[in-house]
Amino acid sequence: MTVHVVQTGEDLWAISNKYNVPIESILNLNGLVSASVVVPGLALYLPDNLPHIRFYRIKAGDQIGNLAFQFHTDPASILAANPGIHPNQLRIGQIIHIPSPLKLQMAALGFIVPSSESANLTALNSVAGQLSYLAIVAYSFTDEGFAYRELEDAALVARSKQLNIKPLLMIRNFTSAGFSPDLAGRILENQQFRRNLVASILNLARQRGYGGVSIDFEFIPPERRRDFISFLTELKRGLGDLVLHVNVHAKTEDIPTNRIIGAYDYAAIGRVADMVAVMTIDYGYPGGPPDPIAPITWLEQVIQYSITQIPPRKLQMAIALYGYDKAVRTNATKAMSVLAAQNRAISTGSPIQIDLFAKSPWYRYWRGVEERIVWFEDIRSLIEKYRLLDIYQLAGTTFWQITLPFPQNWAYIRDHIAIIKT
Predict the structure, then answer these.
(1) Strands 2-5 and 43-46: what pairing?
(2) What pLDDT score does 415 carry?
(3) Which of 24, 144, 152, 218 is catalytic?
(4) Are residues 205 and 297 in the same domain?
(5) Are 86 and 111 members of one domain?
(6) For a Cys staple, 188 with which of 65, 75, 224, 383, CB 3.0–4.6 Å?
(7) β-pair type (166-172, 174-175)
(8) Which parts of 119-181 are beta strand (E)?
(9) Which of 76, 100, 124 is the last residue of a domain?
(10) How many domains does the chain have?
């Protein structure tokens, strides 16, 4: 892969000539509005014919020759990609780069909230080759535990199947006021209400033609920790061969009394669910101070803890397709797609910085007298996240949500990742 970071005084014509890549390709791959304006710090994803780079952590007994065989390459290529390493002095835990014709394999799940049918189908069609699952965010439940459909989902279910994407019924404890701890707690603590919810989810999943269910119960009261496992166990028993996918808040340690993460017993959830998606997003959250959406150091700490509780083959990390634009004085937050965040930097003439510790891009601009800071993702931060996925051999990732444009992400997956279709 080639990533070019725009320097002061550079333009797209010079970059196009340097890499022998047509300007139109640069515009399309990076979602740029115009060829005439760029800003310093803008990271551009450019096509090339170089081998894929795989990331590998050395284990006891590994030898360069064996790794070359495993990755369908040769020892000389591995040594050339890792200056300074000695083939007879590999260190356990050492991370090396391996040029390989073999792409990273992963299961990718995209969320979508049904809105305009035509716009939704256009978004789905555009990324169909990069998805294994589509979680359709269209369901909630009553105070007595009866699941119901809030939004029309039939067209998305049907089109997913045509595209060889498995549709999942996503249900949330979401009300007009947002995620409701009380709603989740009320249902989970009552055995009859839990049964109502399980039965109604199963009925809807089968009636609507889903291939499984994605559970997104957030801010569950910590005292309902065991009840949540009981609910998931009953649900999985009823689903049988259908997929049970569970989304959980990210954490780096287990604190059973914590009001946000306490209810999620990772180990128990991992035993019941087919897939567990850890929400490695919103480290910098709406209303909070300007911070990265998912700093790489925090994300790796979450993964390191998670794999002690959940088998990596079941574990997904989350990637945000959005950024946050925050007023520095008040922390008032506006969400926008990654592409909109990138292009706002260009339209405001704001140089893009990269936080080397977080491996995340950001920039500052002014709206009148109001100072604003935008944190988002780009091809650089994206590659760092896929690097961790490869190193820790996770099952894959989730994307919130696919109607938010991020052309660099989908191009990178198409070029360097093999999506597992189920």
Answers:
(1) antiparallel
(2) 95
(3) 218
(4) yes
(5) no
(6) 224
(7) unpaired
(8) 133-141, 147-149, 166-172, 174-175, 178-179
(9) 100
(10) 3
Check which CATH number belongs to the domain holding 189 and give it. 3.20.20.80
Q: Let me know how many helices (H) and strands (E) the chain has, helices first.
A: 14, 21
Q: Are residues 112 and 209 in the same domain?
A: yes
Q: Are residues 61 and 139 in the same domain?
A: no
Tokens encoding 208 = 């609507």
* Secondary structure of residue 402 in the 3-state scheme: coil
In this predicted model, what pLDDT tens digit does every residue of 199-253 receive, in sequence order? 999 999 999 999 999 999 999 999 999 999 999 999 999 999 999 999 999 999 9
Look up 189 and say whether it is catalytic: no
Relative orientation angle of helices 23-30 and 407-416, to the nearest 10 degrees: 100
Enclosing domain of residue 207? 105-419
Q: 247 and 159 in one domain? A: yes
Query: Residue 57 is part of a domain; what is its CATH number?
Result: 3.10.350.10
Does residue 39 share a domain with residue 165? no
Average pLDDT in the chain: 97
Query: Given a cut of 80, is residue 1 above it in pLDDT?
Result: no
Instruction: Note the pLDDT tens digit of each residue in 47-71.
Output: 888 889 999 999 999 999 999 999 9
Q: How far is CA 222 from CA 71, 232, 283, 348, in A?
A: 44, 16, 21, 45
Structure tokens at 197: 């919810």
Residue 88 pLDDT more than 90? no
Nearest to 409 by CA among 191, 126, 120, 186: 126
Interatomic CA distance for residues 68 and 49, integer angstroms: 20
> Is the domain of 92 the same as that of 11?
no
